[in-house]
Amino acid sequence: MNKYLQIFKISFAQEFAYRLNFIMWRVRNVLQIFLVFFLWTTIFADQSKEIFGYNRDKIITYVFGILVLKALVLSARVIDVSGEISRGDLTNYLLRPVNYFKYWFTRDLSSKALNLSFAAVEFFLLYLVLKPSLFFQTDAIQLAGFLLATSLAIFLFFVLLFIVSFVPFWAPELGWGAQYLLIIVATEFLSGGLFPLDILPIKFQEVLYFTPFPYLIFFPLQIFLGKVTGLALVKGILISSLWTFILFYSMKKLWYKGLLVYRAEGR
Amino acid sequence: MTNSKIQMLSIVKRLAYYFRIWLMMSKNSFITYFQSRVGALIFLTGKTLRFIFFIGFLFYILKNTGNLAGYSLNQAIFFFVTFNVVDVFAQFLFREVYRFRPLVISGNFDLVLVKPVNALFRSLMGGADLYDLITIPPLIFAVYYLGSQLNPSLLHTAFYILLLLNGLLIAAAFHIAVISFGIITLEIDHSIMIYRDVISLGRLPIDIYREPLRGALTYLIPVGIMMTFPAKALMGLITSTGIFFSFILGGILLFASLRFWNYALKQYTSASS
């Protein structure tokens, strides 16, 4: 345990080695929020208006929620795994007495801790500048559901990203492509990281809810906003857990298959 | 032959010389893209999906709300497509900027400086992007199709094209500023990504933003002039003063960026070479 605590500390310190890079990355996150915030503010110019089941407070809370959940769920160091495999650097880890998955999960947690602390400051500053009227959930069950769904989302994204990072075992030059499709395209749109998914046609939503993507950002935020309650909440948590389990199992299988074809190219 | 004619001929010859060099550099750049066809397919799929998703997002929002800051669905999509035209053309032409940092860090920029080609031209336009080139024809078709549904006059269409060129000029000025900044600070990757994030605020008409952000996006970081003004001109929503002002600002920014480039070159230390 102490081993992973040290990894956490080192990884946290490493993030500060490239301070400008990190600050620029956070600036980018804030800029992305501006477009969505002002878009929804314009649509809800009339404060009494209700569209897609959202009032102004709830939709603005959704936008601010994206900032926090992206820091919590989507900030991950696992993104470096793909490069390590294609460069052959994975060998270094295979020779060390560390569990590769625990190592990266610890590094992910340190990245999330740092991103979350910055997101909290940004949240506060944006709150002061934009003066939005936000919705705060007070129901204990909904808050517990939100925390559970967020924890599952963190683990789900970790597993998803790991699976995609295994592509270089078989195609070393295509690691970036798989990550690009998963992170830039799928998570940006299908996770609800840009807009709430319930503005889409019902049929499309029904299909989408059977994929893992909505459970990364959209589902936890829906619980926080009180739009998913009771049985629907339980059903969502079950689907999310099932995906986590299936993908975790697939990740393990692919890892062992990948190791069999790993040739440590580049070392 | 008069002096002015000789000068004109010399300029044309110089332009033809640089055009030939650009074709040569672009050909070399395109060859590298053919090395990974699957990669190209993935990239184009991703780009197309992002484009479709965003249009779908706009479509479903405006289907329910009726308008966005007073603009209809067609107009809102036209703003988005116009944004893409400026953005994709800029990326197609100025992709080399993304590869500039290693040149400066390694000191290999020396090799660019000693060649009988303008160093700025080489650094800015030395590696056209094939993927962006592929997306240009469908984008132009989308502009033509959506634009014609807005029934613009010939004059408004001419203004639209001129303002698009002005938008590209401003994009060039920003890219020049980024590589100049890179020579001084060695920081390019994030500067260019921040530039991209800022201009992505122009995916929708800047009318949706509140002051002082809207003012900043018009005069300070003229995203509005680059992306929103051309589309507004086609819709006949820009005055001739606004159009005139846009060109003046475009000229000033290009001039300022060129001065900054000259200043940055004097700071280049050729370290590591």
TrEMBL record, chain A:
Sequence intervals crossing the membrane: 30-47, 59-79, 113-130, 142-171, 177-195, 231-249
Against Pfam families, the record matches this protein to: ABC2_membrane_6
Keywords recorded for this protein, A-Z: Membrane, Transmembrane, Transmembrane helix
- Matches recorded under PANTHER family: SLR1174 PROTEIN, SLR1174 PROTEIN-RELATED
What protein am I looking at?
ABC transporter permease
Organism of provenance: uncultured Microgenomates bacterium Rifle_16ft_4_minimus_38077
Automatic annotation (TrEMBL), chain B:
Query: What's the protein here called?
Result: ABC transporter permease
Among InterPro entries, the record links this protein to: ABC-2_transporter-like
Q: Which residues cross the membrane?
A: 38-61, 73-94, 130-147, 159-186, 213-231, 237-258
Superkingdom of origin organism: Bacteria
Listed A to Z, the keywords are: Membrane, Transmembrane, Transmembrane helix
What PANTHER family would the database entry show?
A: INTEGRAL MEMBRANE TRANSPORT PROTEIN, SLR0610 PROTEIN-RELATED
